[in-house]
Each structure stands twice: as structure tokens, then as C-alpha cells.
Amino acid sequence: MKINLIIVGFALLSCFSVSSDHSESDSVSKPDYALAIHGGAGVITRSNLSAAEEKNYRQTLDQALGIGEEILSEGGSALEAVTAICVFMEDSPLFNAGKGSVFTHEGTNEMDASIMDGRDLNAGAVGGIHLIKNPILAAKAVLEKSEHVMLTGKGAEDFAALHDIETVENEYFYTERRWQALQKLKSEGSQKVQLDHDDRKHGTVGAVALDRSGNLAAATSTGGMTNKRYNRLGDSPIIGAGTYADNSTCAVSSTGHGEYFIRLAIAHDISSQMEHGGKTLKEAGDHTIHQKLKKMGGTGGIISVDKEGNIHMPFNTEGMYRGIAIPGSRKVMIYKDE
Ligand code: ASP
User: Fold this and answer.
1) CA of residue 113 to ligand 1 center, whole Å
2) Where in the sequence is the domain holding 71, given as residue range(s)?
3) Global pTM value
């Protein structure tokens, strides 16, 4: 019985688009729920990831999918699932979010996060926060408990404190790998910011989900770019650029060079093409990433799920840490050819 389920699961998964190079066909039937996650895109190749690192990433991505599936399979909401996944990934030092956030030019950590509920287009975002352990929880508090959509800096932290969101000391965010990345960039005399300097692997995290009630949600969390200055904000806290969800179209979470994603309003652009241009999820995502973003010279990718449970994850980098799950099947991928 279990084996049959797995076979059916893989047959179903093969009906979904899983990378920029795979073509998407329509699902045979709408899955009970559908989930996609990312842990950032960038120059991620077999030659620059050791076997141990690769295993670690794959296991962690699989665990993140498991957390989301547990919620969705029990009838939990897409909003709950994407939140729990981001919390778990923020707690891992592997990704550029929460614990593993990159350093600013001044050697601090400034984190951004956003979340959106496709049911009512309610949204919450925080930008440039320093001391909140899980920025996605602060974004969710803004969504649920504030009349605003986006709060930044100390104000966002004061708001989070009012709602009992856990804070930590600065040292919590120290990781040797990110610190060395900053030192290297500074020693090169570079004034430039860099997307997760480690071989340009971006490490933002994100999740999109369709739940059993047909609701969509998306969430994204990041430490931004190494060596950033002047309170730079990227796309991740911007609704419509880094995150978007609308029950009538799709849910999207972005990762990549934020300045391009803001200018192209990437996440909303995909939803808009479906809404106004009648495009499928795959057509819309491919157009945005493989034509518009490419033409502008931007790098990165997105994960997306539509109201029918189709999943599409186009990216224009060497790799993207990612995973998908539908009932009975789960798959984790890193490289472009997977
Ligand atoms: N999009 C994020 C930013 O620009 C970085 C990333 O996704 O790696 O802040």
C-alpha cells in the first residue's frame, strides 16, 4: 500500500514543473495540498559544494518540507505552513536568514521578511531588523495585528516586542562563514554588496503553499546582501517583489539580486500575467524570469504554486536550493539539471 502511494506520488510529481528546464504539464488531478520551498539561488554547482555540504542541505530541505507537510496534511492553513517552514530555515545556519544572516558593511545583521495570505491579500513585512530571532514571526505579527503592511528598524522591533516575539543578543547571528565572507569582500576594497559572498550562493529562504481549503500563502526571509550599507532593503520585504499570494492566481516567493526583483515587481508580475493575460503559472514565471529578468541582467529565481496545485520554480542561476511536496511524495533539488 505504502509503495503504491509512493509510486502514485512520483507519478503526480512528474506532472509538475520542477526546474527551469523541465516542461510543465497540467496536473492529472488537483492535489490535496501542494508545497514548494527555496533556500536561495546562485552559483551552486557540484564542484563548489562538498558531498557533506550537499547532504546537509538536502537533509535540511527535506526536514523543512516535512514540517510543512505535517501542517498541510492535517488540514492546517497555507499561512501556518509557510510560517513554520521559514522559522525552521531561519534557525538553520545554512541559509542567509535568521541565524545564518550575512553581515552588513558595519558588521551587523539587518534582516528582512514578508508574508502574504492569498485569502484576503492581507500582508505583513519587516525590514532592517537586528534582534528578532525569527523575522518571519515579526512579519506575521504585522499581518495579523497591525493596521500597517510594512514596519522597519527599531519601530518594527518595538512592535514585535509588544507581541512577545522572541529577541536574541547580537552574537546569536554570528557565524564564522558569513563573517569571513564580509572580511574577504572588505579586504578586496570592494564597496560593492554581494549576494551571500560564498561563491555567490544566495541563501534567502521562502515557502509557498496551497492548503486543503484551497488557500494560497507565501513567505520570504533574508539577511540581504553581504557588505550592504545605508539601510539597504532588498526585494524580500517588499510585497509584490519578494512575496505575493492571491487565491485567484498563485503564490510566489523570490530569491536573487533584489534590486532587479524590485524594479520588475517580480512576484506580482507573475500573478498579473495570470490574471490579466490568461497565462499559466509556467508561462508567466518563465516569461518573468527567463525573459524580463534575463534581459535586465538580473540573477535569481522564484518558487510558485497556483490554485490548482501546479508548482513551477524557474531560475537563471547555476542552482537553487529547493523542494516540492504533494501528498505521497516529496522531492529536494539543488542543481539546474535536477
Ligand atoms: N533577494 C535578497 C536581497 O536582495 C537576496 C537573496 O535572495 O539572496 O536582499
Assistant:
1) 11
2) 19-100+194-335
3) 0.92
